[in-house]
Design brief:
By secondary structure, the protein is α+β, with helices and mostly antiparallel strands. The protein has helices at about 40-60, 65-80, 95-105, 105-120, and strands at about 10-20, 25-35, 85.
């Protein structure tokens, strides 16, 4: 019987995320991401770019603590847009996402970078 192929992508995909740990080794954690088509992905990225511009403006004149809280809030929302699950023992919910964002300045960036990397073409062998 001939193998069947579908143009339609699966609604989710998995990718490992290398999360930096302060004073420790990098921890590799599997994440389950939401698949977005090219137009949906572009819309999400446009929104993130605008959020970052807005954050710069809003954070001016704020204390470092206040600016950090605004950034964490933005990162939690971004992660919620594209992540649907993870390999942590902690339940995947807003409180746990916030805890992840608060533990390391680099953790949200690592998650979003892994998401972007999954959309890049795979390197061909040899």
């Amino acid at each position: 019987m001939a193998k069947k192929f579908s143009i339609q992508q699966a609604p989710t995909f998995k990718a490992d995320v290398s999360l930096p740990r302060v004073g420790g080794d990098v921890m590799v954690v599997p994440f389950t991401f939401r698949f977005l088509d090219r137009v949906e992905l572009a819309k999400v990225i446009d929104g993130w770019n605008q959020q970052e511009k807005d954050l710069v403006e809003v954070a001016q004149g704020k204390s470092v603590e206040e600016a950090t809280q605004l950034e964490v809030d933005m990162q939690v929302g971004q992660i919620q847009q594209v992540v649907v699950g993870w390999g942590f023992d902690d339940e995947f919910n807003e409180d746990s996402i916030r805890a992840l964002a608060l533990t390391s300045v680099n953790a949200p960036a690592a998650v979003l970078s892994a998401y972007h990397q999954a959309y890049r073409p795979a390197k061909s062998g040899n």
